[in-house]
Amino acid sequence: MSHKPTITDSLQFPADSKVPRALFGVGAVGLIASLVGYFLDADQFFFSYLVSFVFFTGIALAALLMVMLHHITRSSWGVLVRRISESFTANLWIWAIFVVPVILGIHNLYHWSHEDAVMADKILKGKSAYLNTPFFIARQFIYFAIWGYLGYKLHKVSVEMDKTNDWGLTSLLRKVSAPGIPLFALSIAFASFDWLMSLDPHWFSTMFGVYFFSISFQAFWPIMILLIFFMQSKGILKNTIRQVHIYDLGAWFFAFTVFYAYIAFSQFLLIYYANLPEETLWYFHRLEGSWKYIAYGLLIFRFALPFLVLLNREAKKNRTILGIVSAIVLIIHFAEIYWIAMPVLFKHGIHFSWMDITTFLGLGGIFFGLFFNKFKQHDMVPKNDPKLEDCLSKSYHQ
């Protein structure tokens, strides 16, 4: 006799949870402290802010792609954890507010925003049709309009399907996702050019867009894993998200560790063997002084360690190992963004500031506060998704 799988957990996030309020509190304190730092050292403030902003925005964008891929492929494996990704993406239109300080700090961050510098530099003059302040600001609005619409719409329709049990809405989700994926690909590539690559306006890489995507997508899986571990430690979805689903997340984590290494090495190799001064200088500055320690750390802790550990099938099922490796990769993910951006401000070596911490806590508190605030408003699992039973059955049969 077949056993039809059912969900025994409550699908409502605990109403009395103080997590969202606590996170918003941390975020407010962090941002206020950072604002004090602005008056002490504006350049440091804007660079610290940019690193943290890119860190968290990249996580939300990776979640957006994951939702769209889920719909376009009609996959069943991730139905139980999809609402987590949707809750990140649903807030992208609100998160757009936090690009404003990047715009306000354009003269502190970007050399190409100074007209006198452009007039005195032939290379910058040649790039001025793209790298100019009005167009930069306009592009930020375009990016977040695309991401905000996609995230809001996909979350709204998914929640509507919970209420109406109308499986026809899955067709609408695919119709939104199909054009959404190429729009996402273009917008995230150009956003990475704007935020990070144009910090060194003489430098360019044809692979930088996919490189930025690869670091963000690799870091997305540790966020998912640690978030689920945190919720299950509080008794949330403890019997619903099972070991096999955790294994799937570990497998994705492993896969994109390999993908990241392939893309990062390919970018380095292309620039290395071309051996053009305007291209190699970017790596030269990041491989001198104390910056080289982060570069070696990326090789060890972002690729070698997670690759060798997660290569083992059992490691992908071991929550302790997965948790430790996830935490390490998130730390080194922050270090990599820091390594990309900060040598523009400090050319000769690492110079940590307390604002690196306050901006991270400030934006991180708001980012996860928004997530939990959205997550608790609806069922934590898409309970009427047509693929839900397949996803649950997998946990019973494996």
UniProtKB/TrEMBL annotation:
Keyword Manganese set for record: no
Keyword Transcription applies:
no
Ordered alphabetically, the record's keywords are: Membrane, Transmembrane, Transmembrane helix
- Protein name from the UniProt record: Quinol:cytochrome c oxidoreductase quinone-binding subunit 2
Per the UniProt record, which residue ranges are transmembrane? 21-40, 46-69, 90-110, 130-152, 172-196, 208-230, 251-273, 293-311, 320-340, 352-372
